[in-house]
Structures are given as C-alpha cells and as structure tokens.
Amino acid sequence: MNIAAHAARAAEGITPEIVAEHGLSANEYKLLVAALGREPSLTELGIFSVMWSEHCSYKSSKIWLKKLPTEGPQVIQGPGENAGVVDLGDGQAAVFKMESHNHPSYIEPYQGAATGVGGIMRDVFTMGARPIANMNALRFGAPDHPKTRHLVAGVVSGIGDYGNCMGVPTVGGETNFDPRYNDNILVNAMCVGLADAGRIFKAAAKGIGHPVVYVGSKTGRDGIHGATMASAEFDDASEEKRPTVQVGDPFTEKLLLEACLELMAEDAIVAIQDMGAAGLTSSSVEMADKGGVGIELELDRVPTREEGMTAYEMMLSESQERMLMILKPGSEKAAERVFRKWDLDFSIIGYTTDTGRLVVRHRGIVEADIPLASLAHAAPVYERPWTKTEPQATVAAEEVPAPNSQLGALERLVGSPHLSSRRWIWKQYDHMVMADTVQRPGGDAAVVRVHGTGKGLAISCDVTPRYCAADPFEGAKQAVAECWRNLTAVGADPLAITDCMNFGNPERPEIMGEFAGAVEGMAAACTALSFPVVSGNVSLYNETNGIAIPPTPAIGGIGLIPDIATMATLALKRPGDVLMLLGAEAGHLGQSLYMQVMLNRSWGAPPPVDLEAERRAGDLVRALIRSGSLSAVHDVSDGGLLAAIAEMALAGGHGVVLDAAPGPMPAHAIWFGEDQARYVVAARPDKADAIHKAAAGAKVPLRLLGTIGGDAIRLDGEPPLPLAVVRAAHEDWLPRFMAHG
Amino acid sequence: MKASVIVFPGSNCDRDAAVALEAATGQAPAMVWHGDSEIPASDLIVLPGGFSYGDYLRSGAMAAHSPVMREVVARARTGTPVLGICNGFQILTEAGLLPGVLMRNATLKFVCRDVLLRVERNDTAYTSRYARGEVIRFPIAHKDGSYFADDATLDRLEGEGRVAFRYCNATGEVTQAANPNGSRHNIAGIYNETGTVLGLMPHPERLADPALGGTDGANMFLSLAETLH
Amino acid sequence: MKARITITLKPGVLDPQGKAIAGALHALGFGAVGNVRQGKYIEVEVAESDPSRARAEIERMCEQLLANTIIENYAYELEAA
User: Fold this and answer.
1) How close does chain A come to C69, measured CA to CA in Å?
2) pTM score, two decimals?
3) Complex ipTM over 0.85
4) Nearest to B58 among C14, C17, C68 (CB)
5) Residue C22 sits in a domain of what CATH number?
6) DSSP secondary structure string for all residues of B91-111
7) pLDDT (tens digit per residue) in A364-390
C-alpha cells in the first residue's frame, strides 16, 4: 500500500464542502478518518459515503427495526439478505421483497419506476428464484396538482414496460392520491419468486482466492451523485461526463435472469449479489463482509460503456442490470460460456483475499484500501430523538354529518379518486404472462398458481396513509392486519410480509416519532397474527420544504392456498344467495373515506384494530372458505360496509337487496364506518345455519345483510341504485382524469 | 403431434405455449434456441409471445433475421404449419411470411385484457374445433398490435378469406368499440395463402386451462392435435 | 464513414404517436402546431471509405432491417467519420 500516494491524493483536498456534498456530517467524517487511520482519497470518500448512507447503513432506523418479529417455523431466511424466504412445503420456497424507488421516480417517472422494478426483480433472482409475480404500491399527489397526471402516466408505463418485457406478471397493487405526496411521490415495487428451498443463493463470499466475476450490462456514469461530479476533481467535466438518469434495459435483465438461473442449476456459484444502489461498492463490500474475507478489485477489467471512467465513477455507478458473483475456482469457463450464450458481459475483476480489506486498483494505482469492517459495521448508528405522535380523540358517529341519501353517498365514494377502479393502471400491466394467474387484479389479493402444482400464492400490498398520519401505531397495525385479512379473504394462510417504510426527515423528532410508532404498531400486529417480517427497505427524507409525506409503512404480504380449487373471490355469483357480515360493528367514522369524500376533511382517531378479534374472524372465514361454505368473500376496508358490498356486486354483475341498517347507531355509521376485522360473505341460504353456528362458536358476530339478486343495489327507503350507474361512477374516474392530459 | 417452440432472446411466452401444447397433445414440444439453424422434424412450429430482442427497433424485426428463421421460412414454404402468437405474429410479418405490419396501438398504451374474437373460418388445422362465426374469448397483452396493411393487401386478404379472427362484441358484431388497438378491419389474426401459417395477437395459451378462467384457447391446440397427429 | 439515417412513416400511414405529440404541444399553448409526424433517427458507422459502396451498404441495411418499407420511408446522409 502506497501511503504516500494516498497522502498526495488527500492533499488534493477533501474539503469540508466535498464532505458535505457526500452527505456526511463533520462528525461522521471524523469517524471515517479514525476508522481508516488517515485521510481518505476521493474514491475512498465516495465508497464510505454510500456505505454509510441512510440507504445502505440504516443508521437512523436500525435500533427500531430490531423490534420487528422476523422468525417463525415458515421462515427460511429473514431480513439481511437480498430478499426474504419462506417455506411453501414440498421443497419449494417463496422469495420476496419490496423496495422503494421514490426519488428517482419523481425526477424521471418512467425510468425511475422501471429501474425500481428491475432492481427488485434482481434482488429476487439473485437468490436463485424465478420471479413469478410483481406488485406495486404507489402514492401520488392530489389529482389537481399540475404534475400528478404526468407522474401517474410515467410511473405506470415504466412499471408496465419493464415487467411486461421481463415476462413476469404484474398482478396488482394499490394507488393513493393525497396532496401530502405532491412533491414526494412513492413508488414501492414488490417481487415474489419461486425457488427450491434447498437451493437458495446468498451473498456471503466464503473462501480465499476465489474469482470475483462481473456479469450483465456495461458500467456507465448512471446515477452518480451530481453535486460530487461537479466538484474540483471533475472540473474538466464535459457535457458527456455529466451524471445521467439511470435507464432500465428490461431486455438485458431478461437475459441476465435466464443466464443466472441457468448457471445456478450448476454447482459454480459461491455467492451472488445484485449491483443495485451503490453498485460495485455495496455488492463487493457486502459479499466480502458477510463471508468474512477481503476482496481485491482490478477496475481496468470492469466492462465500461464510456471512455475514461475514473475509479470513483466505477465504484459509485448505479448502472442497471449488473451482478457480482464469487465463483468456485475452476468454474470460470463454464460460467463464461453461459453468459456469452446470453450475449452478456462477463469479466473476472478480482479475487477474494484473507486481508479483510477492500482494495481497489485502477491503472496501476491503489485507489482505495479500506478495512471492510469499517465500511460495514463502523457506520454510526443513531438513536435519534423522537416525540410520540399525539393521539386524537375518537369521533362519535353522531358528530359526523349524515348524507341525504346513503346510496347517493355510495355513488360518490366509489367514483372518488380514492375508491375508483384502478383498471386503467393494471390494464397496462401484463398480469397473465406465465399462465398461472388464477386471480387477476381487482380482488382482495392476487393469486398465482405455484407452477405445476395445485397450490396458490396469494399476494397483497396494503397501508392506509391517512390512518397512519392520525396515529402511526394504530395505522401500522391496521396495515399489517388489512394485508393479513386480504390474504385470508381469498382463502390463503398468511405467511409473512415485506415492508417499505416511507417517512420524512428522521432528524425531526416528530418524524422519528412516527417511525417509532409505526414500527411498534407493526410489531404488535405481526406478533399477534404470526405474520413475521422477512425483508424490507426504509426510505427516509421523503419531504420537500419541510413538508413530509404521511407516514407510509407499506406492507406486502404473501399467503399460501393449499388447493386453488378452494380459492375465494369477491364476485357475487348466484342470485338468491344470502349476504352476511362477519365481525363487530362499532360505526367508526373517524378518518374514514366517508369523511374525506363527503365532508372534504378528516379528523379524529383512526379505527382501532382488535388483533384478537382480527385473528378470530380471519380464522373463521378461512375455515368457511376451505369447507366450501361461501360463494363470495370480501374484506371491509376503505369506504366501509356499503362500499365492500358494491365492489362485490360490480365484480359479479349481480345486484343486492339489503335490509335496513339496524339501530340505534346512525345508518351512515353502519354503512360507511371503517371498523376493522370484518368480512362480507355470500352463501347459499341452506348453508346459512351452519355458518351462524360456526360464527357463534368462534365468537365472531354475524349479521344478515340481505339477498343477492337484480341489477341494482336496493336499500329500504331509498330509490334503487342501478349497478350500471355504480359501475360508470367506479370505472370512469381514472380514465377520465388521465385523458385530460 | 410433434411441435417445436422457437425461443428467441426475450421470448417470454415460450413456456406458456409449451404447457398448452403438452396439455393438448400429451407430448412436450421441442424448445429450439434461436441460434440453432436446425429444427427437429415437426408437425407444427410455434413462434411464442414476448419481447424478442427487447422489441428494440421494431417489434419482431430483429428476430425475423435470426438464424433459425431461415429454417422456419423454409419449412413454412413446404407446408409445415407455423403459428405465431403476439410477438410471434410480429416476427412472421417482419419475416415476410404474412403480409402487413403490427403498429403501435391506437391508444399508445400496452393493453392486457380478455377480448372477444369471431372465428372467421373453421376449415384450417387451427380451428376445426370451433364453429364458423363462433365468438370466443382470448386474452391480449401487447403495445404493438394494431394490424395495418394497405387497401390492396386488405382487399386480397378479405377476398381470399384469409382473416382468421376479428375483434367483435358479445353477439359477434365487428364494431369499433370492440377493437382494442385500432387494427384495420378489426383483424386479430390472419393466414397465409394456404391457411397453414397463422399469426394472431391474442394469446390462446393463456385461456387453455379451467383454473385460469377459460378454455377457449385450448380448442386451438386440440384442433391442431387432432388435425396434425 | 458515418450514416445519419432518418426513418419516417409513409404519408397516409396513421401515426398515433405523432397525433399525441401534437395534442401535447397544443396543450402547452403551441397553438400554431399543425400536423406532427414522428420517426426514428439512427447513426451507423461503416468501415468503408468509398462513398458509393457505403451508400449501397446503407441502403441494404435500411431495406433489410432498419426500416419496414411497408409503412416506413428512409433517408440518409453520409459523412466521413
């Protein structure tokens, strides 16, 4: 190691300004110098800055995330790898994760969203799984904000084009509009893959002297921190040297997927890691650190797309569709043959060592020589100050003005931006490729068959940001519970979740308080429902000019249906069937969609979730589905009972005749209250008795709602609301909104 | 029946086609890599859906020049049935085995949904299990599915009865509202002069299994199995 | 030599992308915008110094792959690389 060279480079001037541009505080820089034992070179500074960034180090969230339950008999791999892994029985495993790509999607919605999808799929196939389903959770600003339409159009087409080209079905998701996302949209992409439980590939680079192999696309100057690029080191930067938006290439990723899976079938790979955020730096550091080895990289061997790239640029580039692998010695030729077959770059760029250091050489110069432990473990961990979000008072139903007509209110709700059909979005996603989509978008959960079997994987993404904003603890509990409920509603045993924790600036105590509350709410629900967290991602600093997004802990859950012949759907199927409500009614209107749409404001506490009641109701519904007792099932969530019934009627094309709301609660609280742990179910009349008995035995309240039939929603004392009118209201809003571009 | 499915880089409905073929014929098709110039003896060659070569330049354009396509064209000319589904249809037009071209959808957007099709003739190997004029349901999933040919070509296709399927409504009427992508004459699929080469945008292999919500697509593979055994 | 190739839709072939661009320009207040047609631009470098041979080569590329002459026209300029 040429310390003199280092000193010379350091003397080139790592000024406080350059440190700040790298997002490191003065104190963090001191820690860095102490960890390194000297001043860093610019390349070293860049490497530290990405490894110690919030994104890679979880420095603000780490202490909180430890509170989440991550274990269970079904868990094969919890957090810490590229994705979580759960057991599906029969030697099969589901590999899944959700990740945010918020800021890039706001800057360039099409490429930002596309590369988000590409990144999450790489996380999944890196582990040896074939991706079998994608989902996404999207939050946009107010519909009347001038940028919203442009962002929706770009994000949706970016997600669609990437997943469609990959041939992985995008089977659904959720979308919200809220002015608090005006300047900070959220694009959270989830991918689920299928693997052999005994052949899960991990990132730990065990063994000394093993080749480090670079495969995939060439490296360009994509996504390198703009401010740094403009610093003194790059003052001769020409137009071509400017950092560029990352551009996704789904075709190359498809080839990379097939090549990786082909090579994984052989016994050649020791460890593999996707080059995602912080590219070559984080992939090499993580693999070496996890395996307890050192790593030496020869950057002259990195395939580059542009001339004259520096070590700094290569180490920090976020070019897409690249992977780093540690191979078993002797398997280089076999591996190269596979990647050449798929027209992909393949280059041995280094070796594992026993030094415990990351050494980076370029043009004969040691550009970086850093103890790996300092990158992976010496990052500061913050116990940031936080203040608990003040709980709001529970709103009595009587305090919330009633509508003139319940069915009139229903029509407005289902035609509002918040509850209207998302068909315009998922129609642009190929949700049927792979020919295993047994429940398409639009239901409580999407279901994909486990290929070649009769098993089904149910998938759902959920969170209600307006609940979380009012009470992060109850809101996060509700997000987990709703996800569990959605999986249950199709007949699945919920298995585990991944999360995307989207919050504002954690340096503000009130934001950190939201984060803390949300983690504790999630932990409570995950524990009570045996629904552990196996992977996830934290996205902080989602705020602009001091205005933060509402706390948005997006939950992506999966569940297993042992036999898809018993799968339930929400569509009403048979006139004459009876409609029943399972679960207790409290008429909770605080933070309801009714308030937001009809009264144009929201106040009060969100609906509390009784996790024991949630479990009882869910276990009952699942048992009834499995025994073939139910002809349709739908959970009750946004918009309450009447909205749930309307969605079932629309999906099945059958009307309903409803009994009047029972007193003494105000009727609008019955119809639009958003009490949790509830399901609407339909069944043949001759099964009603048995269902009553089962509900009584499970201590789940049951109320008869009415009968299926006709082509309208009929409610005592009001003119019938034709399904055609509801459908028009429900289906028209989004296409009409998007057409006014 | 022995079938071969050609796999191009970027094909992604190759497995789906193979599953549907095997279900109908009891025999797994040969999967033929695009770089091979040899195709095993086959009663049917399938060009599957997907995004061959990323659909860069134009959908199907690069695949049409892939080495294996010379052999596909040669087999087609000697009467081997060739079925091109979605991207496969685009490749067939680019390779000159079928006339016309598939352009960007009139909506400019990718569209994935079920459509209704009117079966225009049932005297080919692909359609013997359907009735003439029958309305069937297949899914579509494409961005470049708007069939375009000049007037003279359309006249010839219509005159020779070479339109295989047309987008229609539930009663079989060919209407503008039933046209999902702006295709001329609501054309969803066409035959070559001999009725042995079929290209269509909709995906029969995606509704060939009751668990997926329908079996109208299975009848195409069963027709082929019965006719070509 | 380097060829700068422009590929455009033939007159009369429907161009929904061009139409959408025109619509967007109108929405931005460019009221004077009339018909808009869009196409592709491709740069190809050829190791060929004789202009007439280079031309022949480029034309074959356009005919065989770069343009679909059922719906597209092509034009190109040649320059010394």
Assistant:
1) 25
2) 0.93
3) yes
4) C68
5) 3.30.1280.10
6) HHHHTTSSSSEEEPPTTSS-E
7) 999 999 999 999 888 889 999 999 999
